[in-house]
## 1
Amino acid sequence: MFSDLGECLISAEQIQDKVRQMGAVISRDYQGKDLVVVGILKGSVLFLADLIRYITVPLSIDFVAVSSYGASTTSSGVVRILKDLEESIEGKHVLIVEDIIDTGLTLKYLLENLWARNPADVKVCVLLDKPERRKVDVKIHYQGFSIPDKFVVGYGLDYNEHYRNLPGVWTLKPEIYSK
Ligand code: IMP
Ligand code: MG
């Protein structure tokens, strides 16, 4: 498995430092607000699990699953909800937690979809941002790292469902995904 990895782009320690800082800022911003942290399955699972341990205000968590790239590494532009939230977000302060923003299509769709349910607020928190790849404008309120246009795996991010369990973020050798 590890022979397919390129370089370690962000170490486990760097991620934990950043997530701790993000948790502190979010805790300050959401004082006294009814916070619902919405994770996008499956990529956000590790990030969300770590992030909420650094958030010191009361919160609930919920998840959505959206159609993604499948086995391919290029966006189809078509987004579909595969699993919806379990609780109503009406009047709530929603924080969407996502592993990475690439073209922005997933988050743009989800933002419009969630805003239509009359929440008090919807904000976006992403660990990784690939700004060079953006196709649509999406406001990111909390961002961990900006990374170059390379396909990455680890810390929740997969290639064909593999590598999600790596504690750091790694590039994949291009010959792996251009096959
Ligand atoms: P977007 O709709 O193009 O912004 O795509 C976001 C989704 O694409 C993320 O939730 C990831 O699941 C996936 N994705 C984008 N870039 C990568 C990558 O480098 N590695 C793994 N998954 C990625
Ligand atoms: Mg994803």
## 2
Amino acid sequence: MASILVVDDEKIIRDGCVKILGKEGWAVRTAASGEEGLGLMENEPFDLLLLDLKMPGLSGMDVLQQVKSLHPDLLVLVITGYATVESAVEAMKAGAYDFIPKPFTPDQLRIVVHRALEKGALQREAELLRREREKGLREIADEKSKIKTIIHSMADGVLVTDHEGHVVLHNPAAVKMLRMKTSPVFGQPLQDCLGNGCLVDLVSKIMQVSKEGSSAVSQEVVMGEIALMAHIATVRSEEGEVLGVVTVLRDISMLKAMDRMKSDFVAMVSHELRAPLTSVEQQLSVVLAGIIGEVGERQKEMLGRAKERTHALLTLINDLLDISKIEAGFVVQQKEPTQIPEVLEKVLEVLRHEAESKSISLQLSCIEGLPPVMADRGNMEEVFINLVSNGIKYTSAGGAVHLSARIEGSHLCVEVADNGIGISAEDLPRIFDKFYRVKNVQTRKITGTGLGLPIVKGIVEAHLGSIEVESQPGIGSRFRVYLPLELSAKGKT
Ligand code: ADP
């Protein structure tokens, strides 16, 4: 309910107002002088003041001035005589909302007061909205500056681009890590800021993620001594639309150095172990062959097991040495035009005995006249020995391993297919990881190091080739190695 204060020295006006306005449901208080009115306003809030301008003592104008400074939001309607219209205009200039000339009819009073109260309500609502908006804007600004401060203080580099590859946010760490000459300006194309040759791949990866909307990818960026890991992820709206890409950069140089130290250590230890173990294996062979005296059945059995174990240990050591060579980038010894069918024949020869002892047939079919590939022959033998011996190991007696070679586009494709135990879809993505071995009832008794396939992959990639696998449990596996047919090797035989 609105509350109204009427300040007028004429009792008839005060009583009239109480009657007319009271009927409208409003609470009406009266004061006979300006002083009395100001006193009332001090103690209770009013929504509207009806103020007579012409009063003895404190004039209406004086009251108005005090009200405007003490209660600036209070709406004031001035009551004026005909003769004082000019002062009514003055009063409105001083902050009164409207005026009503004396004498007025009850309807005139009702209309003016209704209008004033409505305006008051609207004003209050507008003020409330303004405050809320101001508060919201302040909160957003606070939040923005908080996020900005956090991003600016991060040790990891942050680079945010819109869907067209324009930089919209970055932090000083990103500028430093990517060795940008100047900080990018808002909206600058990514290519312009990352002109550095070794960053071309990073730029195209970011553009690719943005275009394809892939969820997240990681890419290593090497800049001389410095190695960075870039995690690239799309930023999506609540509706799922791709808005841009956020790239977080982390300096992994230290981790890389530690990894190198670890590899060097493993290589050194393996190297030191290889010579004495080879000697132990040889001596066991000599003893087992009965060259230095007769060996009883029980001794043969135990020495045989010792030799088997020594051999497994030597395989592990050789694999560790191979993988550390690959990791150090020293895998390819000598690239020369290599006839892959010849390599495959040699591989079959080496493994024929192993296959026969398991009753597994080995088959080879190559397209006639295949061109040679530029490759290290020893490396190629190692690749296919690993793949074929896996085929033999993971295929039950009576099965077959089939080797074939053909041309596919600009590559020579060599396939090693078996009809063995196969690999589940769950294990498939991990079989090229170091030391990963599938563990199930069928593989429990098969020995291995889990390094064969990582070595194969490392060698193939060092020859700029690739390897892929298709497999179904219970049906078999197909490993395909793609080697580039380099121009220099084409045509040579
Ligand atoms: P391992 O020394 O264990 O053979 P690899 O790196 O050569 O190590 O292979 C990794 C794993 O992949 C193996 O443990 C095996 O489970 C699976 N695997 C490899 N080749 C085959 C294959 N031809 N058939 C079925 N499983 C295979």
